[in-house]
Amino acid sequence: FQPIRLIDYRPPEFLIDELLLTFRLKQRGTLVQASSMIRRNPSADRRNGPLRLCGEQLQLVELRLDDRRISLQDVCVTDWELIIENVPDVFKLQITTRVDPEDNTALSGLYRSSAIYCTQCEAEGFRRITYFLDRPDVLARYTTRIEAPQEECPVLLANGNLVAAGEMDDGFHFAEWQDPFPKPSYLFALVAGDLVKIEDEFVTASGRRVTLQIYVHERNRNKCKHAMVSLKKAMRWDEQVYGREYDLDQYMIVAVDDFNMGAMENKGLNLFNAKYVLADPRSATDQDYLAIEGVIAHEYFHNWTGNRITCRDWFQLSLKEGLTVFRDQQFSADMNSAAVQRIEDVRLLRQFQFREDAGPMAHPVRPDQYLEINNFYTVTIYNKGAEVIRMLHTLLGPETFRRGMDLYFQRHDGQAVTCDDFVAALADAADRDLTRFKHWYVQAGTPRLTVTEQWDERHCTYVVTVAQATPATPGQPDKLPLHLPLLVGLLGSDGGDLAARVSCPYERRGNDLLLELKEVQQDFVFREVPEKPVLSFLRGFSAPVIVNPFQSREEAAFVMQHDSDLFNRWDAAFSLAEAVILECLAKLVAAETMELDPVYLEAIHYLVGHPTDDRSLTALALQLPAENHLLQALKQIDPVALHEARRFVKQELAGRLADGLLNLYHDNEPSATYRLTGDQVGRRSLRAVCLDYLVLLGEEQQDLLELCAHQYRQGGTMTEKIGALSALAQVPGALRDEIFDHFENQWRSDPLVMDKWFALQAASPAADTYDRVKKLLDHPAFSLKNPNKVRSLLGVFGQNHVHFHHESGRGYRLLADRICQLDPLNPQLAARLMQPFVTWRRYTKDRRQLMEQILQEIGGQAGISRDVYEIVSKSLA
Ligand code: DPP
Ligand code: ZN
C-alpha cells in the first residue's frame, strides 16, 4: 500500500466537461455506459501522457473512442486503473462496465439496501461505478439516464432536474435527470426502488419555489415530518445568516437502511442513513430529534460549502467538513439552547477528538498524507476543523466573518479550492494577517495552556500570564506557537462581571474580553480592577485546548454558581468532578479510603437545590465526565479502577443527595403529549439523570427500581423509556431482564429502535455484559452487514471500558474476531471498529500485551484491507 501525499498533488492532466451516464439496473449485471467529452488540461504540468482513469471492482465490457471501438487488448487494465495510450487532445470516450449491486457489501459505489438501489460515492466510490477521473478537482456536467424494471423500481432518481421519463420494452421504464451545476464525481447519486414521497414546498428569499421531497419505504411514511420541518428551518437560516439561497427547483432526501456514514450531500439528492430522517415520539428520543435537525441542516448547508465550492483534493476535506460542522452547530445553537449546544459539542470534542489527537492516529486538520482517505473522515477533520472556523469567527467577530464568507463565495463559486484559499478570503475581507493562525491547519495535537494570575492590591492591577505548549505527535516532534482567541471574564466577589469597569487594551465582546494569544507566553494586564477577581477563563470554550487546572476548588465552585457565561458554569462543574474522580482513583490505587471532597459535594448539593430554568443545563452539570474523557489524564490506564472510582463518586452523590434528586425528579414531570421544546426536553433529561443516580441505591431501596419500571411503563415517549432502560441497565436482576425483554418484544420489527436496545446492553457495566453481547451477536435482528447494527453492538462494546478491557482479553478477542470477519465485507466499517485498539500503549502492562498481540494478528490477516492495515500499522508504529 502506497501513501498518497499532499506534496505530490498535480493538476489533472485531462478534464471532463460533460458526462452522460446510462444505467440498466439489475441486481447482478447492471450495465453502466459512461459517455464523456475529454480534453487535455491546458494548465497541466504534462501535455502528452496517456489517459489514466480510476476504476475498482469493475468489469470492462466495451470501450469506444470517438465512436470507434477499441480492442480491450490495446489498453491496460489493472485492479485500480484503466490506461489508454496515445489519445488525442480532445475526444469522446464511451465506456461500458458491469457491476453487481447485490454483492456490494462495502456500501461504496452502487449497491442495494432493503431492495433499494442506491449509491455512495464520497470519497472514492464513483470509481466502483465506472472508470473516471475520480478526483474532486474534475468538475463535469452530468446527465443520468436510469433504466429499471417498473414494478421493482417505480421511483428513479438522480441529481438535478428530471428532463424525460417513459416506458420501455420488457417491463422496463426510464428517467433522465440533468444537473446543470458542474460537480465532482463524489457528489453523484442515483436511487431506484419502491419508495413513497412526502412533499412540501419552500419559497426562497428571492421568491423561487422549491419542491422538497423525502423518499422512504411506505411503512415509514408517517415519520418524516420532523425532517421536513428541519429542512425548511435550515433553508431559511442559511438565507438569513449567510445570505445563501438554494439553487435547484427540487431538493430530495432519501432514507437508506444500510449506510456507512450519517448522510451524504449529493447535489439535489441527499442520501441519508434512515436514523437521521425517521422520527416519531413513540420511537425516537429527544436526542434523535435534535440529531436529525442537525444532520439535515449539515447536508443542506453543504450545498454551498462543499458543492458550489468544493475541495481541490482530499487533504482539504476540512475545507467543507469543518466549515459545515461549524455552520450546523451555529444553526442548532440558534434553534435550541445555545449553551446546551456548546456543551454537547465540547463534550464530544474532548472525549473523542482530544483522544485522537493524543494517540498514534493524530493528524492535522489538513493532513499531509494518507493510505486510505476513508480513514480520514475523523473527529479531527470534522470537529477540530469546526473549532478552527469558530476561532476565526471569534477573532474576526460575526460581521467581519460574514464579509469574509461573502468574499469566499464570490471568489470561488464553481471552483475546487484549498483551505489556504478559504483563509485568504477571510484575511482579505478582515484586512488581517492570519499567517500564524494557519498553523492550526498543519499542526496536530491539543495545545495545553498554563495560566498564572497575579493580583497587585496596591495598584489594583491584575495580570494573567498564559503559556502554550503543544505535545509532540507522530511525525511532528517540534511544535510552533498558535494564534488563539481567549474569551475571558473577571468575576467580582458578588459574582458579577467586572469587565466594564476595568481598564485594558483588549476588545470587549459583551461581558467578555477578547485576549489574543500568539506567543509561547504572554502577559495580559488589567488596571483599575476594584478587587481581586475570579477569572472566568476560556468562555464558551473559545479555543480547542486543555487548560491545566489553576483555580482552587472553592473558586471553581464560585464560577459554577455565578458566572454569566453558562458554558463556563457547566465547565466548572465538569472540571471539579474530574478532579474529584481522579483524586479518588489515586486513593483507590494506593489502597487508601476514597472520600468525596466536601467542596464538591456542597456545590452539587446547591445545584440540586437550585436548578436553573434551563433544565437541560442542570442535567448536564449533574452528569459526571465520561470515562473516555477521564482516562486521558492518566499516565497508565487501568480502566477497571477508573470505572470503580467514578462509580464510587456517583454512588456517594446518589446517597448524599437522594432526597434532592427525588424532589427534582418529581417536580419535573413532562407533559403527556410530546413537545420538542427546551422546557420539555429539559424535564425529560433532568429526570433521566436523576434516575441514573437513584437507581444505584436500588439494592437497599427497591422502590427506586420501581420508579424506573414505572417510568418505563407509563412514559409516553421513547425518551422516557430509554431514560428508564438506561438507568436499569446498570443493575442486573429480574426487573432489568423483564423490562429489556418487554422492550424487545414490542420493538423487534423496528430496526432503529432495536439499535438502541443493542447499544444499551453493550454499554452496560453490569457483570453479565460480555455474555449478553456474545449472545446478541446471534440475535435475529443483528447483522454484520448493517452498519447501524455493527456500531450499536460492537462499536459501543469497544467503548465499554470495563468489559472491553477485561483482564482476560476476552473483550479484545470478541471485537477482533468480528473485525476480521467484517473486513472483507466492509473495510471502511471494519477500520472504524479498530478505534479502541489504537491507544493500546496507554494501558496497564497486561492489557498492553494482549492488545499488541491482537493488533499483530489482525495485521497479519491474509487479504487485509488498506483501511484496516493503515490503522494497524499506525497503531504499532
Ligand atoms: N456525508 C458526509 C458528511 O456530510 C461526508 N460528506 O459529512
Ligand atoms: Zn459533511
Give a quick rundown of the structure.
The protein starts with a strand and ends with a helix. The protein is 40% helix and 21% strand.
Task: Describe the secondary structure blueprint for this structure.
Layout: E1 4-5, E2 14-24, E3 30-40, E4 51-54, E5 59-65, E6 68-69, E7 76-77, E8 81-84, E9 90-99, E10 109-113, E11 116-120, E12 140-149, E13 155-158, E14 161-167, E15 172-183, E16 190-193, E17 196-203, E18 209-216, H1 225-242, E19 250-256, E20 263-264, E21 269-273, H2 286-301, E22 310-311, H3 317-335, H4 338-357, E23 369-370, H5 379-396, H6 398-412, E24 416-417, H7 419-430, H8 439-442, E25 448-456, E26 461-469, E27 484-491, E28 507-509, E29 512-517, E30 521-526, E31 534-536, E32 546-547, H9 553-562, H10 566-589, H11 598-609, H12 615-622, H13 627-630, H14 639-667, H15 678-694, H16 702-714, H17 718-728, H18 734-747, H19 751-763, H20 769-776, H21 787-798, H22 801-804, H23 810-822, H24 827-833, H25 835-838, H26 845-859, H27 866-876
Parallel strand pairs: 2-12, 18-19, 19-21, 22-24, 25-32
Antiparallel strand pairs: 1-23, 2-3, 3-9, 4-8, 5-6, 5-9, 7-8, 10-11, 11-16, 12-15, 13-16, 14-15, 17-18, 20-21, 25-26, 26-30, 27-29, 27-31, 28-29
Bound molecules: diaminopropanoic acid and zinc ion.
The site of zinc ion has 4 residues, from helix 3.
Function: Aminopeptidase N is involved in the degradation of intracellular peptides generated by protein breakdown during normal growth as well as in response to nutrient starvation.
Domain Peptidase M1 alanyl aminopeptidase Ig-like fold: 445-548
Family: Belongs to the peptidase M1 family.
